[in-house]
Request: fold
Amino acid sequence: MTESILDSVKAANDVPLDEELFDDELLGLINTSLVDIVQQGYGNRDLYVQNNKPTWNDFFQDSPQMVKNLGISYVQQRVNWLFDTPATGAANSNKTAVLESILFRINASDVFEDA
Reply:
């Protein structure tokens, strides 16, 4: 997996890395997803992704590995959900539940840090 936030989100959404047509839309979705993680108390609140230079390590810095893994999954899945919205209400509900579960686990991860 690439460490570039934009490139890894592109790869997770089947967008070729050299395709720039969707970059503005993807960047907006990435940044709003990162804010969700910051609101859980993790991540670099000053990082704003504008190109493929920022990496996951730039964002997560001193966050626990479990938070980094969950956070990457959350951003990739949330961007996918918003970028390619499911056609059915049931699929939307399922995706919403998965995303809420990941955010809950990020929020609760401090319980497991000392375990």
The chain is about 65% helix and 0% strand. The radius of gyration is 14 Å. The chain has a mean pLDDT of 91.
